[in-house]
Amino acid sequence: MAHMDMSGMDGMDGMGDSSGSSSGSSSSTMAMLMAMVFQTDIQTPLYANSWTPHSTGAYAGTCIFLIVLTVIARLLVAFKGRQERIWADQNAQRRYVVVNGKEPISERLSRDPDAKQMNMMLSENGVEEKVFVVERKHSAAQPWRFSVDPARAALDTVIVGVGYLLMLAVMTMNVGYFMSVLGGTFLGSLLVGRYSSLPYH
């Protein structure tokens, strides 16, 4: 009888272990599900546990920081678009420079793989003039330049880094943080959106 009692208790212990493990896994699953919904807790850490607002003022300051960071992200994207246009203009000027005693620009254009040349005649008041119509292929890649490409790579790295910081703030699922990022995006686009030619995510 004692042996049967002990085996019965062992069976109950096994059931207790299995029920404990199943309850533990279900609680962790519930915690994960709860983390994937929006919440309004002001004591939501941002980037580190030490950056946890414990008052309404600290929470408002964190939201203002996110707004400013998002505006900076928009400024960086606008600055990059402006720089890309400047670099493209410099590349075009470098390509079509004509020096005294060198070959005419018509001959340069005829050998330029990025330009398509057509001979045309313009007539005004009986006076005809021969002109060149040049069509530039925008799909052609610019050559690698030490004065341009490292700066472009550094700027891209900063833009991506700031973008990931904003993404981590949104992933906290805090409503205030999320609305701050959206507000900063609106404000930044309102200020410098017309200067940006590149989409930003």
From TrEMBL:
Protein name per Swiss-Prot or TrEMBL: Copper transport protein
Subcellular compartments: Membrane
Annotated spans, Disordered: 1-27
Principal subcellular localization: membrane
Topology versus the membrane: Multi-pass membrane protein
GO (cellular component) term, any one: plasma membrane
TM annotation in the entry: 58-77, 153-171
Naturally occurring in which organism (per UniProt): Trichoderma arundinaceum
UniProt record similarity statement: Belongs to the copper transporter (Ctr) (TC 1.A.56) family. SLC31A subfamily.
Lineage: Eukaryota, Fungi, Dikarya, Ascomycota, Pezizomycotina
Keywords: Copper, Copper transport, Ion transport, Membrane, Transmembrane, Transmembrane helix, Transport
GO molecular function: copper ion transmembrane transporter activity
Domain of life: Eukaryota
